[in-house]
Amino acid sequence: MDLSGARFYAILDTGYVPRSRWTKVCLALIEGGADIVQMRAKTESAQERRSLLEEILPLFAEKGPGAPPLVINDDIELALSHPGLGLHVGQEDLPAREARVRLGPDRILGLSTHSEDQIRAATALGPAVLSYFAVGPVFPTPTKPGYAAVGLELVKLAAEISGSLPFFCIGGINRRNLSHVLAAGAKRVVAVSDVLCAPDPEQAVREIRGRLPA
Predict the structure, then answer these.
(1) Half-sphere exposure of residue 149, counting CA atoms within 13 Å on the CB side?
(2) SS3 category, 202
(3) CB neighbours (10 Å) of residue 100?
(4) 3-state SS assignment for residue 132
């Protein structure tokens, strides 16, 4: 799937969104204009993740061809359980090459990177394997407590060497520091807590999406 025009990547994360607001917040991300939505449920069981997915699938079905792609975080079995779902993996998850073989050629596959070596490895895999890669955490974030912030210099490097492979900046990005990330060369971003904890997540998505380059 071509993600060259994608700019804002939303993450629906159980760490920030209680079950009681799960579908409401997901709909807000879609209506706000997210280009991609990832479902992330790191502490839930496989059965719980499946239940969470089934709650939101109708929202995407209702949008039809206009719905953003839905990506599953680090659960390839769940991703394969429904047509068209993508997968995002980390450096310590299922290797990207193996994931691509299992997913087939048409589904979205993304990879987290946290260093120059990992970025270069991702770009070497190229679009034959990856649909995109993520760079971060750019700033300190409670979402990734085990990772040191990589800073804006790594964003600049990614912008220089990524070629045609899209990359998204992630980690501590919000409406206050967004301009710094864009100035470093980013075109695509992920914002998690700034959106999910906002009084109006839909408006937060609209504000960020509206500041990203065309």
Answers:
(1) 11
(2) helix
(3) 19
(4) strand
Task: List Cα–Cα distances, 122 to 102, 113, 114, 174, in angstroms.
Answer: 18, 8, 11, 25
> What is the enclosing helix (H) or strand (E) of 125?
helix 116-125
Is it the case that residue 172 has pLDDT exceeding 80? yes
The dihedral through the CA atoms of 179, 180, 182, 186 has a sign that is negative
- Strand extents, DSSP E, the chain: 8-13, 36-40, 70-73, 86-89, 109-113, 132-135, 167-169, 189-190
**CB half-sphere exposure, 84, CA atoms < 13 A:** 11
pLDDT of residue 10: 98
Cα–Cα distance for residue pair 93/163, rounded to 1 Å: 25
Is 80 exceeded by the pLDDT of residue 145? no
- Between helices 22-32 and 46-63, what is the axis angle to 10°? 40
User: E strands along 7-77, which residues?
Assistant: 8-13, 36-40, 70-73
CA 126 to chain centre: 18
Q: Check whether 167 has a pLDDT greater than 90.
A: yes
Q: What one-character DSSP code corresponds to residue 96?
A: H
Q: Name the token pair of 106.
A: 């048409």
126: alpha, beta or left, given left = phi > 0 and alpha = psi -120 to 50? left
Rounded-to-integer distance, Cα 64 and Cα 36, Å: 14
Residue 98: count of CB within 10 angstroms of its CB: 12
